[in-house]
Specification:
Blueprint: H1 4-14, E1 19-26, E2 35-43, H2 60-63, E3 71-79, H3 92-102, H4 106-116, E4 121-124, E5 127-135, E6 146-149, H5 150-163, H6 165-170, H7 178-198
Parallel strand pairs: 3-5, 5-6
Antiparallel strand pairs: 1-2, 2-3, 4-5
């Protein structure tokens, strides 16, 4: 993980039921330069978990765009600087590389790219692929990718922690992220302060 923005986006996807690769590498090919994507993620449709994996736990805003899928992939770029250059983030060859890495068939990749390349959701039958940007600063809306603010991502994570504060706080040291551990500590501290103030 490179910075706090990428780490928050990683945990946002994790807390929404995705398996996530960070710093996904694009190897050089005849049609593609070396490079990387901040996050590449995949989600299956029937994700369940007793703590934080229930139907009401997912981000309503995200899933308002994503319905009726068998496999869902996400290619995510995170921008924390004020001058976010996204012109090359979702180039055709990069998206194709990511689609193949997710495991879509040759037919599905061709279909997604030929019919939906300029839209933020690529689809073939019941398989979908989302191009997502998470940005600390305002990014001009475009049809080619979906944009969420870093504030939205952070607020969602805090809400999730708050919903399951006892379980999350007790398990905080098992999360391999000092940032997420700190967020759990902070929420637990806020809750204890509220209880003490009410007494």
């Amino acid at each position: 993980m490179k910075n706090y923005g990428e780490e928050l986006a990683y945990w946002y996807l994790r807390f929404n039921g995705f398996f996530v690769l960070d710093n996904f590498v694009y190897h050089q090919t005849p049609h593609n330069r070396n490079g990387d994507a901040d996050l590449l993620a995949i989600r299956l449709p029937h994700v369940k978990e007793p703590i934080g994996g229930n139907i009401d736990d997912w981000d309503e805003k995200l899933f308002s765009y994503l319905k009726d899928y068998d496999v869902l992939g996400v290619l995510c770029e995170v921008k924390t600087g004020p001058r976010a250059d996204l012109t090359r983030a979702f180039e055709h060859q990069k998206v194709k590389y990511a689609l193949n890495r997710i495991g879509f068939s040759k037919f599905e990749v061709k279909e997604m790219l030929s019919t939906n390349d300029n839209y933020f959701i690529l689809q073939c039958n019941r398989k979908q692929f989302l191009k997502l940007v998470v940005s600390e600063h305002k990014v001009q809306n475009t049809d080619t990718f979906l944009t969420f603010s870093l504030e939205h991502i952070e607020n969602f994570i805090y809400r999730r922690i708050d919903t399951y504060i006892r379980q999350k706080y007790n398990a905080r040291h098992f999360f391999p992220s000092s940032l997420i551990q700190y967020m759990m500590y902070r929420k637990d501290k806020e809750k204890r302060y509220r209880i003490d103030s009410d007494e």
